[in-house]
Amino acid sequence: MNQQSRTILFQGDSITDGSRGRNEDPNHILGHSYVFILAGKLGYELAGERPHFINRGISGNRVSDLYARWNEDAISLKPDLISMLIGVNDAWRIVEGLPSGATDRFERAYRHLLEETKEVLPHTGLVICEPFALKTGCTVEKWELWQKQLDEYSGISRRLSEEFNAVFVPLQAAFDKAASGKDAAYWLWDGVHPTAAGHELIAREWLSVVQNSQLAIR
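^ that's the sequence the OP posted. Answer follows.
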């Protein structure tokens, strides 16, 4: 990775989006998700290197949606590191039996995305974050189906991380531990979307893994 003015790109759905700004206003451009927390901490600690953080999460996105916009929102930006957190919308469409979930494209689209990135940006570091949910809010009624689907996606994410030499950030176990014996909604207010505390949890897990890996941002 380039040791100066490195660009770190975050990709995903609403969990990453965090109501980010769609203009160049630096007060709002990163949104209020875990991305803002990470950019604040790392940006402060590495002010001398002036790392550039970009948030391109879009609410409602599935992996196939990421792939459809990957040229504009990833490849063209030439990032030194791409962090991806995706999967809950793929799972939601499958669990609810929606027409957009008639086929499960999670692994297929993820693989296409990673293959293309490795081909075009061979020196870009990759971080794959595990999708997660808790039994509260919108997941309660069909919780067993949610668990089954996300367990499958977790396994796929781990395998793809190994195959494409990406760093895998596990998150489900951390949320399970945090919510053990407590109100799950304190961490994920509707079962899938984090509260402020939930975003802090993601940021801490990300740092504990990535900053102790070959992709550490220094």
